[in-house]
Amino acid sequence: MISRRKTVLGLATAAGFASPALALTRTPRQSTGPFYPDVLPRESDADLVRIGSGPAAIGEEIEVAGQLLDAEGRPIANGFVELWQANANGRYSNSRDTSNVPLDPNFQGYGIVRTDEQGRYRFLTIKPGLYPGRTRHLHFRVGGPGFEPLPTQMYFAGDAGNTSDFLLNAVRDPQARSSLIVPFAAPLSGGVARGTFNIVVGV
User: Which pTM value belongs to this model?
Assistant: First the structure.
């Protein structure tokens, strides 16, 4: 019987991944922000919901997956994809985040994976909480052969704060801005909501 963790960490061939196309919109470069982990968790795999065999983090579980692609739609294999974010309370695991909302000791908060031969990656995490001045978002940084590492952010479709978020709306090109906003939907068979975030870099 395949374990839950192996299922989560395995790269699937499910629908929703990009296929090669010409002249894709490049993913905008965005700030890494002040809360990149200053101390990495003892685990940094693709499952941010649990550390080892411990209890699950609080919050709504979500799955975010996609491909790392060049501007011509070719997959970038063996690239790295980093993800870090606030917990369900809206707090980061970083000493600079001095807010009075609680940390979640069961939330990993950071993960890094390598893309497969089709440029695919996948994370299981939780929907981040809100904190003052920002809409909900996930931080990403990607890198690979022949291109400079790209930091960017992913946003949640339908969040009311998207219309006023200063970093999201600093992306003036509507198509580029739209590429950062991801809808999440639960599969027909139930389970966690899934979103597809393809990251396109210039190589």
Answer: 0.88
